[in-house]
Amino acid sequence: MFLPCRTTEIPKEILQKLFCEVPGPLYAHAVTDDHEHRRRVLDPRQDAAALKALTHPLRIRLLGLLRMEGPATSSELAVRTGESSASTSYHLRVLAKYAFIAEAEHRDGRERRWKSVHEVTSWSNAAMAGSQEARAFVDVARRAQLDHLERSLARHQEDLDTGRLGTEWLEPSGFTDLGVRLTPESLTELWETFERIVSELAARDEGDPRAEQVALFTGGLALASGAGAAGTEPDASTGTTAGPAKKSGTEDAS
Description:
Region (Disordered): 225-254
Number of strands: 9
CATH topology: Arc Repressor Mutant, subunit A
GO molecular function, one term: DNA-binding transcription factor activity
Pfam families: HTH_20 (PF12840)
Strand content: 5-15%
Number of helices: 7
Strand order of the largest sheet: 2-1-7-3
Domain HTH arsR-type: 49-143
Protein name: ArsR family transcriptional regulator
């Protein structure tokens, strides 16, 4: 998501999970009732200032780190991001001003600790399309997701090379790059099915000592045939699947 962001005319909000640091993707999925208590819904008409505040790559990354790794100080986040403590402190205060984060309990009382207020941020894609500021935010968020994809790939390979991940993760890890013809309704059903299965598997593996954080990147982007300007058409799908080998197929895992 970005790309996992779905843009359709179906009036359903898309949750964008702002996890922009390894591990943890910006994650898009359909809204379900159990998410109500842990999401922040952004309305471009009422939350223009908050959207503008979040339209900054470092702030998105800081929010993602707090959501994935838990409370932290500006100094700790400076180390994680490679930024100065003064810079992270400033951007954290901006996030706090618009209620994306709040003060957490202090360990020793010497430095302020911050925590995320919600687990996910959601919005309506259709509503975002009507505001220049909202479109700018979505663009920054999507670019942050692509950056996270690159970071995750590098981190995954490093973890394997250094032995932080066992060889049992070689087979199930990978990417799928396919091109299929779907209707808007089928693409929506695909997102909802993915969300349901991810939730079920995460619940099943909760507490399992063998479980690791897995960065999931999902994308479903409709492309009009022959509509792109010269030089802008995407390359054809490779049609490859790098992941667990098919039990009855001929594809090789890579």
